[in-house]
Amino acid sequence: MKSNTNVESLPLYIEIYNHYKDLIVSGKLKPGAKLPSIRKCALERMISRTTVEAAYLQLSAEGYIISKPGSGFYVCEVNYSDIQKPTKKKYTKVVNKKKPSYDFVSYSVDSKSFDFDLWSRYIKSALRNKERLLHYGDTKGEYDLRLAITHYVSEHRGVICEPEQIVVGAGVQSLLNILCSLIKTSSPVVFTGVDFVKGRVVFRDRGFKTIFYGNLTNDLSDFEKISPKIIYTSPSHTTPWGDVMPIKTRLSLLSYAKSHGCLIIEDDFDSEFRYYVRPVPSLQSLDGGQNVIYMGTFSRLLLPSVRISFMVLPIGLVDEYEKVGKNYNQTASITEQIALCQFIRDGHLNKIIKKARKLYITKSNTFCACVKKIFKDKAEAIPSLGGFLTQLEVKTDMSSSELVKRAASAGILVKPLDLNEKKGYPRILLCLSGVAEEDFEEALNLLKDAFFNE
Fold first, then answer.
1. CA 403 to CA 257: how far, in whole Å?
2. CATH assignment of 138-329, given 3.40.640.10, 3.30.499.10, 1.25.40.10, 2.40.50.140?
3. pTM of the shown model
4. Tens digit of pLDDT for each residue in 350-381?
């Protein structure tokens, strides 16, 4: 057996295994051919009989050879001509794109908004729960966390529920996958307001037709043409800009759902970040929890890497979940669930939210002041009432798409704001959460040069 310098790190029994496997697959050892005895093979190669025996047992387990007691090992009758030999494939080398200097697109988190040392202490404390960490956990999520979520959403969003109605998962997409198994209808899923592309992908992959409807009004007569049974909406963030669904429209939507037997999926992903007014009531609280599935996430409140989201099922779907829920593993880390539960109970989540609100409103004010200082009368910053977004209206004949391209060429990522530009100047949308305050002036100077200097 020739030594292969490329596999020197392989165990010796694997080298012997590969040697005989290659002889068998290539046809050099025909079906029925007898392999050298374990003793003979060991003597010829000056290795232990245990090593040869391990190689032969591996070949036998995979069906290449068969052991005949008192006789030896023989090559099995198998057609190896249909087995494709592995070959090295050439892949196009992926060229890493140059990282932008400033990213005003991603919904990242400002490091100042989160206490990493505090969170790490809760994670360390959770790791001491050795007995709980030895198991996969409840498929719905840890009960004590679901109880803490019940109190939290009741206090902050008026959501009416019990822990048994809550299902925890690693992100909204994983929860939507479960939800698709609970919904017994082939009705199209209508997405209103901001188009949640990743949510639409889940429903399409599960065989649902999806329709993007746009912003709702009080008049829902157009729904009669579609006859939807599932409506996906984000009342606290109906536009890319972060507008809120008026209470009259909310009540109209709930009335339609009740009279037409519809399920509403309420994605309440950033309702906590309202700066000048209190968060508006959730649809679930207005509905009493009858026809609304409430979705929430902690990724925006804590860190994007803490993948813990949850949904509150109507009572009618809880029994359905009990039938199929056992088919789904819990996807959220038990360690993080235990840590988050105590984090909420000790009041730190409320403190984090207050701290983040104060930070982001300060950043918004600072950014607007920097725009006025640098652009003067060439642009105007328009802060939002909530969220992390700010509009920049640029006084130019260019389109918002052209502004986005010019910004990208200067190493800055921004998004166009889809408004009717015929009625005014183009606007771009900037998320301030992931860019440090001290970098605002440099970023805005780069934008100004990109927009106004040829």
1. 41
2. 3.40.640.10
3. 0.80
4. 998 888 888 888 999 999 999 999 999 999 99
